[in-house]
């Protein structure tokens, strides 16, 4: 501890500038674990001014939520309802929030061999294997655009960033008249052969 005026003690700081500290703290967060929200069915408490924008950034009352630990806490209690709304739910309360597209982004893709499994990593550090419980969906509403999504948890998806979508396409092989990727013993269609 370093000494300051009048005998007070202050924590000695080590390392570089503040962004280094933020990176060290973010790196020390535990692995992401969602809460058992499917087991909780409290009555609707109302809505709260929380919004997840198209880039997966969380906002409260129009201001970005900068504390990753807080965002991870909210994400751990996020659930999608049968009517398509998104809620933050605990055993005793449930609040509707706004989600512009989907709540998560897939920001990394790792390929494991033997058996081949593609694993996506979300912007909050959640690892999602491409398998029967976490299927791939290609949104082709905008013809010609390759917009893949992966199911993270029931009702919750992550949109693949452009770089991850390109990486996924690099794993594609031709099967019949389609391009597919293999993961966890299954084939997932990503589009027709060009």
Automatic annotation (TrEMBL):
Pfam families: DUF1285_C, DUF1285_N
Domain DUF1285 intervals: 35-102, 103-190
Signal sequence residues: none
The organism's place on the tree of life at top rank: Bacteria
Residue segments, region Disordered: 1-25
InterPro entries for the chain: DUF1285, DUF1285_beta_roll_sf, DUF1285_C, DUF1285_N
Protein name as catalogued: DUF1285 domain-containing protein
Organism whose genome encodes this protein: Kaistia geumhonensis
């Amino acid at each position: 501890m370093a000494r300051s005026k009048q005998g007070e003690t202050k924590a000695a700081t080590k390392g570089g500038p503040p962004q280094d500290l933020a990176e060290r703290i973010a790196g020390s967060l535990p692995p992401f674990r969602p809460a058992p929200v499917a087991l909780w069915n409290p009555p609707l408490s109302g809505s709260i001014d929380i919004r997840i924008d198209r880039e997966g950034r969380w906002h409260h009352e129009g201001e970005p939520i900068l504390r990753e630990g807080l965002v991870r806490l909210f994400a751990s209690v996020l659930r999608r309802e049968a009517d398509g709304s998104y809620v933050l739910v605990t055993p005793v309360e449930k609040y509707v929030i706004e989600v512009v597209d989907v709540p998560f982004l897939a920001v990394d893709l790792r390929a494991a061999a033997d058996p081949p499994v593609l694993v996506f990593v979300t912007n909050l550090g959640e690892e999602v294997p491409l398998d029967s419980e976490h299927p791939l969906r290609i949104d082709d509403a905008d013809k010609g655009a390759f917009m893949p999504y992966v199911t993270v948890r029931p009702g919750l998806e992550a949109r693949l960033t452009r770089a991850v979508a390109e990486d996924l396409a690099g794993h594609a092989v031709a099967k019949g008249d389609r391009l597919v990727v293999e993961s966890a013993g299954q084939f997932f269609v990503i589009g027709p052969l060009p």
